[in-house]
Each structure stands twice: as C-alpha cells, then as structure tokens.
Amino acid sequence: MRNYIFILLWCFIFCACSKNETSIQLQIKGDITDAHPRIVTSDSTYLLTLDSTGACKIILPAMQEPEIANLYYSDIYGGTPLYILPGTTLSIGMERGSVKTFDGESADMCRQLNDFRLLRQFSLSGDDVLEEKQYLAKLERLVEQCNVHLDTMKQDRKFIELLKKRMFFHIYSDIPDYVTFYSFRTGDTAYIPSEHFREVMVRVISDEDGIVNTGMYSMLPSFIDILCPTVSRTDYKTKLAYLQGRFKHARVLSYVSDYYITGYLKNEGIQYLPEVRQEYDRLVQDSAMKSKFDAYCARALKTAPGQPAPDFSFPDMDGNMVSLEDLRGKYVYIDIWATYCSPCRAEIPYLQKLEEKLKDKNIYFVSISVDTNKKTWENMVKKDQLGGIQLHCGKNPKFMDDYDIPGIPRFILIDPEGRFCGARVGHPSTPGWGEYLAELVK
Q1: How far apart are CA 118 and CA 114, in angstroms?
Q2: 421 and 315, same structural domain?
Q3: pLDDT of 61-80, one tens digit each?
Q4: Furthest CA-CA distance within the chain
Q5: Residue 7 within a domain
Q6: Alpha-carbon dihedral sign for residues 400, 404, 407, 409
Q7: What would the pLDDT profile of 174-207 be if each residue is shown by its tens digit?
Q8: Which domain holds residue 131?
Q9: pTM to 2 decimals?
C-alpha cells in the first residue's frame, strides 16, 4: 500500500512538472553559418543546436510563473524578449538576427514585448539638458504614464505586471546616457552625479529579482561603470570587488562577472586567461555561460601572440588575389572595416598619416573591407584615394571566426614570419601606437 501511494505521488509530481514545461521551436531561414543562438532565462542559459535546415527545439524545465527571457541569434546581435508561459509551445521564425514571426499561446505577448512603438512612446530624448531634479521627476512621470497606458491593455495581469517592470527598467536605463551627455550638452565640464542621483541608480539595479524576471541584464554594465568608475576600462578587479559587495542573486552576479572578465580578455588579450580563470569559475555559476566562455577562449587562444595567423586570400581593387602568404617578410598591420561603420571611417585620417610616416619601413598596411556591397567599397576607395593594400572580404564567416572578429573596427598585427603579434592591437588614433610601430619596424 505504501509503495502504491509513493508511485501515485511520483506520477502526480511528474505530470505537474511536465504540464509546466515550455516547448520552444526555432526556425532560422537563410544562411546560418554565423548563427549561435541561445536563450537566457531566469534560471539558466541554453545554447541551441540547429540542424542543417536551421531548426531546433528545446524544452525548458518546469516553472511556476511566467517570465520574460531573451533570445540571442549570436553575440553580435541584441536580445529579443520572449514571454515564457509555463506549459505552452512557442514557435519563432527568424531571418539572420531578426525575428519575423511568433506563433503559440504567448505569441501576442511576445509581439507586444517587441513593439518598438511602445518603447519609443515612453523613451526620453534630448532631456540631458535638464537639471538632475527635473530629470528624475520626468522619469517618474513617464513611468506613471506608461503604467496607466499598460493598464488599458486587454492582456493577462501577470503579463501586464511583468511588462510594467520591464518598461520601468527601459525608462530608467536612460540614466547612464544622461550622465554621459549632460556635460557635453550644457558645457558643465565639472559635472559629476550627486549623491542622491547615485542613490537612485543603486535603487534601480538593486531590484535583482525584477531584473532576472524581465531579462534586463544588459542595462547593468552601464550603471556599474558610473557607480564604480575606474582609471582603466580594463580594471576588472575593481569591478569584481564592487559586484560581490553589491549583488546577491547568482544569475545577476554570473552575468556581470562574465561581462567584465570576458571584456578584459577581449581588450587585453587571451594571454591573461590564467590570471582570471579561477575567479571566473568561482563567480559564474551558469554552466552554459561557462561553455560559451570556454568556446571563446579556445577560439581566442588560436590568435594569441606567437600563434600562426590563418592564411587568407581576397581580391584587391584590380581583381588580383592577395594572400597573407604573399606578404611574408614584413610586418602586416590589418584594418578590418566597412564603409557603413562610422568608427572605422573616423580612423582613416590617422591611418593615412601612419602609412605616410612608415611608407619605406618594414611593414605592409592592409585594409580588408567586410562590405557586402562590393561596388560601394570600390567607390569609396577611389573617391577617398585610400592607400595601402585594399582588399574586399565581404561576408566571410570563416575569416571572421579564424581571426575572432565579433565587431569592427578591428586592427591586427602580424609579424614577418606570419605569426600574431596581436589580434587586438592599437588603432591608428591610439596615443603612442604610431611611435610603438615606428620603433618595431625601423
């Protein structure tokens, strides 16, 4: 009899858990070579494995309450919020980094979460000329107006309450921009946030449960950078000390620790991995996040100083193929850029001066464009009379992966033997970089 009761109890628990499981079906159309999708929920990160057609299915563990999760196409693209309704199926259609369709019981809620009209309606714009007191009062009024608007929506109340909380974070996420641009707009170069202003910022990010349940992790670094300023943007140890004293929720601590430690390695170089490995494993509890970090490190180690640089071969302006092997015997300073990239274009005058300064030295200057429109690249090279060796790569995921290039501009230095001096080196505009190169190649 006792065994019979135990079996019934086990079956009840199993059925209850199964009932609250959520099935997510993802279909990505077109080229999926650069797709590395993942879903971040309140309890974990789930790395998704696509089949040859760009499809996958994942069953999320049972949860008692709805929440807002985020779907990422890859590291380059921002997250798409998803309304996770326990015990339902959600189908998502994507093309590249953009979600095109939602289908399922929570589809309407997902569409409302991604309604940019709502985000624009309750966003601040150009208000960084207001004094702090006026600005904070305007934020409060905007939250009140947003809540009134959301209360008119005919949706489940749990969804409305989550959306209110997410919109609260959306509205207050403008604060770091206010701090950044206030001095510029007003000319008050001595401005630093008041103690009261900082207290408001602390209150916002102290709602850790709210951040986790609405998936608003991405707002945290910009707040932390103001509340915990450092002399160097790579001073991750000061950041980690602040994080451990501020955050208690394992999900929040995992996210921000991963952000700053990974950022440190990306900025300073993978050779510092032994320095941060133990601290990373202690602070980051998310197994999928760790797997993603390990995958990044494995890729980055291939581009560490002294490692052989993978060969490439791309056409120049005349259609002639130029490979890295062709450039052996000299240093090769590579600029990965695109015509549509404003920061890339801003580096061009500095690069031209550097090319002129070192034109007779032991170095090649190679600019590799990732423009998908080759004609646009050709027109700009001709119009602006760009020098050096101009090559067109276009859309080439293998090259971007071989050289671990998640974004542009990127500058790379290869030695005369074809080995990496650095996969992330100084920009032409970086103070002291020109002098360093001149000394290296003299």
Answers
A1: 9
A2: yes
A3: 888 889 999 999 887 677 89
A4: 92
A5: no
A6: negative
A7: 999 899 888 888 888 888 999 999 999 999 999 9
A8: 116-194
A9: 0.78
